[in-house]
Design a protein that fits this description.
It contains no helices and ten strands.
Length: 154
């Protein structure tokens, strides 16, 4: 549709004390509530007791998901009174300032399209100023050794 691609998902919100907080303005080591809006495109099949998993990725190559928590929702049919549903968990941000990616995964067993269950919201924790120190993790999950070349630090 001519829009730029983004991983800033309008269906994932962060709240502090019930007030929405911008994803680029999170404080380190602070508890927030993550709210995920869950949609159902079926007009015939509700999803009762559907688990919603929450996690986050840290910045790097070969990142792993760090489990935050889960909620269970009753997601009604499209246009019904239980649609959309809202899953919620508490999250204490990492103490280290940096870029993180919050992810939610809907675990519906009857979903006709399992490729649309994962959602992501990019967040920044803390304020980075130049020069900034950022941890960059590199992981190799294969049994073979690999060489990685990154640009030199300037």
């Amino acid at each position: 549709q001519g829009f730029g691609v983004t991983w800033d998902n309008p269906d994932i919100e962060l709240l502090e004390g019930g007030v929405m907080v911008p994803s680029h303005a999170l404080k380190p080591n602070t508890e927030y509530e993550i709210v995920a809006r869950c949609w159902n495109s079926s007009t015939e099949a509700p999803c009762y007791q559907m688990p919603v998993l929450f996690g986050y990725l840290s910045f790097g190559i070969g990142t792993v998901s760090h489990f935050i928590g889960q909620d269970v929702v009753d997601l009604g049919v499209k246009g019904g009174p239980q649609h959309p549903a809202f899953a919620r968990v508490k999250w204490k941000t990492p103490a280290l300032a940096g870029h993180y990616c919050i992810q939610t995964l809907l675990l519906s067993k009857a979903d006709k399209n399992p490729l649309n269950r994962l959602r992501q919201e990019n967040v920044n924790v803390g304020v980075l100023a130049s020069p900034a120190r950022v941890e960059f993790q590199l992981r190799n999950y294969t049994p073979q050794p690999h060489q990685y070349r990154l640009p030199p630090h300037r």
